[in-house]
Known about the structure:
Chain A is α+β, with helices and mostly antiparallel strands. Chain A has a domain at 166-265. Chain A contains 9 helices and 8 strands. The longest helix of chain A has 22 residues, at 3-24. By secondary structure, chain B is an alpha/beta fold. In chain B, the strands form 6 sheets. In chain B, strands 12-11-15-13-14 form a 5-stranded mixed sheet. A 4-stranded mixed sheet of chain B has the order 2-1-3-4, with helices on one face. In chain B, strand 5 and strand 6 (121-122) form a beta hairpin. The radius of gyration of chain B is 27 Å and the shape is globular. Chain C has helices spanning 7-15, 23-34, 39-49, 53-62, 82-86, 89-100, 142-151; strands at 74-79, 113-118, 129-132, 135-138. Chain C starts with 6 loop residues before the first helix and ends with a helix. Chain C is an alpha+beta fold. Classes of the chains: A alpha+beta, B alpha/beta, C alpha+beta. The interface between B and C is large, with 56 and 43 residues.
Amino acid sequence: MSTEERxxxxxxxxxxxxxxxxxxxxxxTQPIAPAVEAARQVELTINGQAVEAWEGMTLLQAxxxxxxxxxxxxxxxxxxxxxxxxxxxxEVIRGRRSxxxxxxxxxxxxxxxxxxxxxxxxxHRKIILELIQARWPWVDKELLEKYGAQPGRxxxxxxxxxxxxxxxxYCTEVKKANCLGFVGRGAERxxxxxxxRAIEMCPTCEGGNMGCRSVCPTGTxxxxxxxxxxxxxxxxxxxxxxxxxxxxxxREVLHTVGDWRMPWVRSQTMPGK
Amino acid sequence: xxxLKSLLDLEELRKGIIASKDPSKQCITICSGTGxxxxxxxxxxxxxxxELEQQGLSEKxxxxxxxxxxxxxxxxxVVIFPDEICYLSVKPDDVSEIVSETLVGKKIIERxxxxxxxxxxxxxxNDIPFYKHQIRLVFGDNRLINPQSIEDYIGLGGxxxxxxxxxxxxxxxxxxxxxxxxxxxxxxxxxxxxxxxETTRNAPGDAKYVIVNADEGDPGAYMDRSLLEGNPHSxxxxxxxxxxxxxxxxxxxxxxxxxxxxxxNVGVAIEQMREYGLLGEKILGTGFxxxxxxxxxxxxxxxxxxxxxxxxxxxxxxxxxxKYIRTAVSGIHxxxxxxxxxxxWSNVPLIIKHGAKWFGGIGTEGSKGTKIFSLVGxxxxxxxxxxxxxxxxxxxxxxxxxxxxxxxxxxxxxTGGPSGGVIPESLLNLPVxxxxxxxxxxxxxxxxxxxxxxxxxxxxxxxxxxxxLADESCGKCIPCREGIxxxxxxxNRICEGTGREEDLDTLADLGDMMRDCALCALGQSAPNxxxxxxxxxxxxxxxxxxxxxxxxxxxxxxINYYIDPEKCQACMICMRNCxxxxxxxxxxxxxxxxxxxxxxxxxxxxxCPPRFGAVSKLSGVEIPEAAxxxxxxx
Amino acid sequence: xxxxxxxKVDEIIDKYESNSESxxxxxxxxxxxxxxxxxxxxxxxxxxxxxxxTHAYHIATFYKHFSLLPQGRHPISVCLGTACHVRGATRLLxxxxxxxxxxxxxxxxxxxxxxxxxxxxxxCALGPALVVDGxxxxxxxxxxxxxxxxxxx
Lengths: 273, 634, 153
């Protein structure tokens, strides 16, 4: 398949997926249109381009509204903002002051100058990508190349979950199912599934397809959650790490999920198992 | 207990308390802070109580358990009023002698006094060098009051400032005074308190909150605990003044449950305030209503971060949130919330009482007032010290701290805890204030000051802090969670002798990214201990990387214990004490460390009699081959 | 395992008027009462406060004070604060590990000791320090530790 063809396919897939995902998350909205009636208009520049936005919008929304794309990972427009991956970091200049902010949460302000690809941003984004790569080695090559990321710079701690929290937010906010959650902190932080709850809720979620799988950028979410019971027999653990599940399931997951919601983190090679 | 319904009621109460106290009556005070508690001060106090009872002196002599005096190195501290005779390191066995000799016989027991450098004993606390160079504005009352007695506090002028504010000043006046005094936050960043108060006051919304941050998680710092334990009312009075100025009716005290005595004393203080009507509705008969809730923290350093702390108060996991909208505008339940730390709050009554000009007369241009530091580590006089801002580091460490332990050489001092950095010997004359410490690549933080000598490895210290942070980070954002872990990987290999040429660049790149991109202050400042040690001690890092040598002899993988056959007297002490049986030899046969078995616990070095001094640590050199069959001692 | 008596859990929750905002405070009291948070305890708390387990379990694993395993009768906490660290806390910890045969975070099989590390006890003058059965001890050597092990019931 040529690059062009692949791009075309990806884009059509993306559209379909978005349509699907839009339907799924009915009820939760973060409109790009003015959040408050009679919201104030705000003027700023992004990469030198004058942009008009509404008060209450984020920099990411403002950039997207004029077709400037900023890479994101933990962001989903239908879910609550999270601001954790920092891949969407941009440089904001006001007068002589410059600072790096996460565009997915930073509110637009009058008169600021935003640089989405400044030297500083690119340098930081490169390191963030390298850190993600050390966790999840299948990061999109084009993106790695764009920022000159050197795979292998950091010690590989391959995991199947990069803790973006999209699944948790989806399960909690959209489905209100509370099957998934975080546990621990710092280096020990994990996402776990609550099997007792999952047995009850997952089979009914998106007709047994489990919506969390559609928002997971890494394919960590296996569809086996819906059939959690037999795996543990009668005695279910209180909570079980998602990534431990994945080690057994990732191949099947790749097969069944097959595509990636976020084009930049799609799989380049099949995770070797 | 009658409720105080007016300013007059309060003043009458105060007069009554003062009148009931006979200043010439003897009073034994015993430091009962956690530090002295660890030295069995409780037993000393109990022994005093029973001794007085036995000798029929209970009525004649008062006994008061006070808060921390600061000189923890020499606790438990007993001061006998009215003569202010100060006895140090008092043991329960000393008690009956103190009662019969000093209290009854009016004689001083020299053995329990501080002995100055000139060999002369010092009777009064304030003449001891440790105290002589301090200015104890905030901390001074600790030694005079029983923290569980609101009457003690009121007797010393407590709640006078509150009265002044409620009856003579508008909220705007109060903010103006605090702004003019330029009181800066004592918890870390040094943000001007008055400006924060003003932002909170002006933020839209009726319900507003004031909060005391007593989640002192910085390892090696304990001044907030001692203050809250020893003088809780000073913090509460400051909080109430802040609440009045900001327009808040609800306060919170977020205190770590690891500080049980602080939790207890604050709880008692709040109860007493309620009984006197100093909390509740229409305080002192005015229109001001205020109440306080104590929230115990369950053990998370990151919960000291303001947004995380507020999330925890809401009963959720204490994770920080991005503060593009400040907590002063949107904090607890999205309402304007003003957070200051313990020490900041307890400065407030002083400023109100004595005025902004008085406060501005102490300290430096940009940093006013005093600061309490916890002076710990390899220093002779460990303890809490309160000094005017701007005192040179050298004076704090040498004049107050009494210099370095065991005649070792000073190497560096770490300030600001896990968010701070190190300051090397070349900067010992640095005047300590917010701005100078930042300029030197460190920070004030909450006031931890950890003194390090030549036996401290800075790479190991950097690794220690990163290890701490890897555990204490909430793990939400990638720069902090992954960045710290990868920094730790690099530091671990440097300490293990497998560091790489490019490692220092890698650390710098990671640190740079984390400072800019991490979600909260914990992550943004996490690289500081690493970057500042690289800044001042690059050679030490390079020694580890290039020559696999730890100059301070700390990094386990880079050292070996070695017994000098010339010096060993084959006394068997190290052999018997080695926990893993890694020492060969026997009676009259020189001992040899079996390197393959050695776990490098250092026991042999510790137990080898100093007069032999046969055991040493080697780093970066070959271990001399042991003679086959063993050498007989000559 | 025998059935745990959960009546104290209910009492504690009643004290806080079943307010879910007091979850952390409730769990602290429960932890102090039972010395650990068992699964039935957590389920009970969630049910009474009407909160999902995801929420309670996150808190129980996030804060260091909570334990999801039974604790020994004699808790030992070794201080790893900075002041203790520069004065040799790691060596003290090694000695403790050697003496009781478990790593930090573990409990001996006879449930006699639980070993934990803490990040500052605030008695820096004692460093390196540890607390055993609520008593603060300074820089114990191998022999003193052996005595503690031998004398504990």
